[in-house]
Amino acid sequence: MADSGTAGAALAAPAPGPGSGGPGPRVYFQSPPGAAGEGPGGADDEGPVRRQGKVTVKYDRKELRKRLNLEEWILEQLTRLYDCQEEEIPELEIDVDELLDMESDDARAARVKELLVDCYKPTEAFISGLLDKIRGMQKLSTPQKK
């Protein structure tokens, strides 16, 4: 894959703006000059032909989506717990991979409670919901082999 002489170069197209509902950034591959599939006449006068290709990712897309949804849920819950906007939430880091490394739900709950020590609202429902959501998730720091 590192040999750029035989493989096309990858070009990243600009990502759609936030809230556009688009699927995200797209990657196009630029075919080397004279490669098949450049059109009926061979080489194009307009420059290289861009064809959309699939990108091999390190992590399972479904797992990344679950993680993103979890992070959005955590932010939403923290804004309710601290009764403030997202930018005003006290600096704390709930590391999901760290929680997944722990042996039991009791240890996970104790760690989250420790992180939320400055919160004056009840945190039990948040902690219970968080533990339910991370149950069955996989760590992202160690990618799966296919």
Structural summary, described in words:
It is found in: Cytoplasm. Keywords: Acetylation, Coiled coil, Cytoplasm, Phosphoprotein, Protein phosphatase inhibitor. Belongs to the PP1 inhibitor family. Residues 61-102 form a coiled coil. Inhibitor of PPP1CA. The protein is mainly alpha-helical and 146 residues long. The protein folds into two domains: 1-56, no CATH class; 61-134, no CATH class. Helix content is 34%, strand content 8%. The chain contains four helices and three strands, in the order βββαααα. It has a three-stranded antiparallel beta sheet with strand order 1-2-3, with no helix packed on it. The longest helix has 21 residues, at 61-81. The radius of gyration is 23 Å and the shape is globular.
Note the topology.
Layout: E1 9-12, E2 27-30, E3 50-52, H1 61-81, H2 96-101, H3 105-115, H4 124-134
Antiparallel strand pairs: 1-2, 2-3
Helix pairs in contact: 1-4, 3-4
Major sheet description:
3 strands, antiparallel
Helix content: 25-40%
> How many helix segments?
4
- What is the residue-averaged pLDDT? 74
Poorly predicted runs of 5 or more residues: 2-13
Number of structural units classed as domains: 2
Structural class of the helix and strand makeup? Answer: mainly alpha
Succession of helices and strands:
EEEHHHH
Terminus-to-terminus distance = 18 Å
Overall 3D form = globular
